[in-house]
Specification:
With 96 residues, the protein is of the alpha+beta class. It contains 6 helices and 3 strands; from the N terminus they run H-H-H-H-E-E-H-H-E. It has a 3-stranded mixed beta sheet with strand order 1-2-3.
Length: 96
């Protein structure tokens, strides 16, 4: 016999993450994981150690040439990464 107040597992998990304020952190992880997809394998090869702190994405680069190119595209990168997660998580990007 099935109860009338059943919910799908995805709805239960979504409400659980919202209630426990885990959804922002999960979106940050999704954003970091999508770096290679958004930027491509070549850029991902020269970047690493991505982390988010206070709505700022920090990206370490191993090539000064790649860093300069990324600095010029900073705003476009920020917009594309925020579109991936569906909300404005990143307000600034710092390349080191």
């Amino acid at each position: 016999m099935r109860k009338n107040n059943t919910q799908s597992i995805s709805d239960v998990l979504r409400s659980y993450t919202r209630e426990n304020k885990l959804d922002r952190k999960l979106n940050e992880l999704d954003l970091i994981k999508s770096w290679e997809t958004v930027m491509g394998k070549t850029v991902a090869r020269y970047t690493g150690n991505l982390y988010i702190q206070n709505s700022t994405l920090f990206v370490e680069t191993t090539s000064p040439i790649v860093r300069n190119e990324l600095l010029m595209m900073r705003e476009d990168i920020r917009i594309r990464l925020n579109e991936v997660v569906g909300e404005e998580l990143i307000k600034t990007i710092v390349f080191r």
